[in-house]
Amino acid sequence: MTNTNGDGVQTTRKTFAIVHALKELDGARIDELSEHLDMASSTVHRHVATLDDLGYLDREGDVYHLGIRFLTLGGHAQTRQPVFDLAKEKVDQIAAETDERSQFIVEDGGRRMYVYTEAGTNAVKTDATIGKRGPIHSSAAGKAVLAASSDEFVADVLDRHGLPQVTPHTIDDRETLLEEIEGIRDRGYAFNEQESTLGLRAVASAITGVNGEVYGAISIAGPAHRFKGDLFRSEYPDLLLAVTNEIELKLEYS
Q1: Quick check: 52 and 89 in contact, CB under 8 A?
Q2: d(CA 71, CA 55)
Q3: Measured between alpha carbons, how far is 90 from 86 in angstroms, rounded to an integer?
Q4: What is the pLDDT of residues 119-149, one digit of tens each?
Q5: pTM of the predicted protein model
Q6: DSSP character string of 103-133
């Protein structure tokens, strides 16, 4: 029987708080976790010991790290949707063809999450790592997802998360963002003008289904000094529209 009492819920919340803290701190001792989470050391120790016994933590002396066993769960979540293999193939293709960085993102709780990334030979290093989450309105792929979604969904996301300004170029005005979303819907692709990282531009197109599903978006990102002119405004958007259209057709007829 599922435990639905308050103690059980709080226990689960504490366990996941510790898991996320270990990720954020890149490993920690019991006392560090206790201080970081404002949680009693005895409580932290019980949860950590259980996670360790189950094989989800690695221990180096008195420092605990997330264990590789989490990959079993993450890998399953990453690949369970049929769109993943199709998106992965195209992200790899785009990175090889453009020599830049390409990524596939999905919406997760009103935020963007990187599900797969690949870097071409000239790609700049970014923090776009698999599993990383961030504001959905500050990236090309996130804006493409919003534009492909209903007005009700967009309003709900903006009500919940607001428009935090990530860089001086991030759109932090609701009406301005809604106008941009309408433009994205008209042309089919979105731009990121240094809105998530200074010096970085990106273009993206969403992947949708015949019944209105929004599977995610694929983007190409690179340094602003290379991402300009026809390459940025025309060639890369055309490439992404072709790629996402092909994926949508394969999903429809698979």
Answers
A1: no
A2: 12
A3: 6
A4: 999 998 888 888 888 999 999 999 999 999 9
A5: 0.77
A6: EEEEEETTEEEEEEEEE-TTPPP-S--TT-E
